[in-house]
Amino acid sequence: MKDPINHKITQGLERISKAFRVLLWEESKQHKISPIQIQLLLFCATHKKENLKVSFLANEFDLTKATISDSLKVLIQKELLSKEVNPKDSRSYTVQLTQKGNQIVKKTSGFSTALNESINVLPELEKENLLSSLLHIIYQLNQKDVISTQRMCLTCYHYKKEGHTHFCNLLKKPLKKADLQIDCLEHKEI
């Protein structure tokens, strides 16, 4: 093996990914919807309405439009989402959470609590370094076309780094490592 520490880090990330999947699966069984459907509901709760279209969601989740469309159809049938058809193109629509969907989001949004508690035991400096490392790994995976959409500081028009200083031109202020975003609603692609 050429670089055993890289292999160990990859194994560690895989174990964390497994924990995420297990926690999400347990939550989905309780609400009789699939893990991707829970993720779609959570995404709808935290993102702008104009981003809640089939094509955007397919790109976001690296899934086909057909898979996203099928998942949305189930969520609409279960009255967890409502559909608003684009008056200019009847094939295009956005979705939004219903009151019932909001209740599911409130119940499921804590599914990653065990992961958050495990991270919380780390000292602040280690958390900041871990976040920084994850941002760089995500950026590299994005550059290699392994994962698509990234709305993080490192890929944002407003972000600037000089030496060890991070700066957001939109906010017009320096950013601490802990301030760096992985999913920024104000992201503007370079």
Description:
The protein is α+β, with helices and mostly antiparallel strands and 190 residues long. It has helices at residues 4-31, 35-46, 54-61, 65-77, 99-108, 113-120, 124-143, and strands at 81-86, 89-97, 159-162, 165-168, 173-175. It has a 3-stranded antiparallel β-sheet, with no helix packed on it. Strands 1-2 form a two-stranded antiparallel ribbon. Helix 2 packs across helix 5 and helix 3 crosses helix 4 (65-77).
Outline the secondary-structure elements.
Layout: H1 4-31, H2 35-46, H3 54-61, H4 65-77, E1 81-86, E2 89-97, H5 99-108, H6 113-120, H7 124-143, E3 159-162, E4 165-168, E5 173-175
Antiparallel strand pairs: 1-2, 3-4, 4-5
Helix pairs in contact: 2-5, 3-4
H and E string: HHHHEEHHHEEE
- Unreliable stretches (pLDDT < 50, length at least 5) are none
Give the structural class: alpha+beta
Name the helicity range: 40-55%
Mean pLDDT: 93
Care to give the gist of this entry?
This protein is of the alpha+beta class and 190 residues long. The protein is 52% helix and 14% strand.
Short descriptors:
3-stranded antiparallel sheet, 7 helices, alpha+beta, two-stranded antiparallel ribbon, 190 residues, single chain
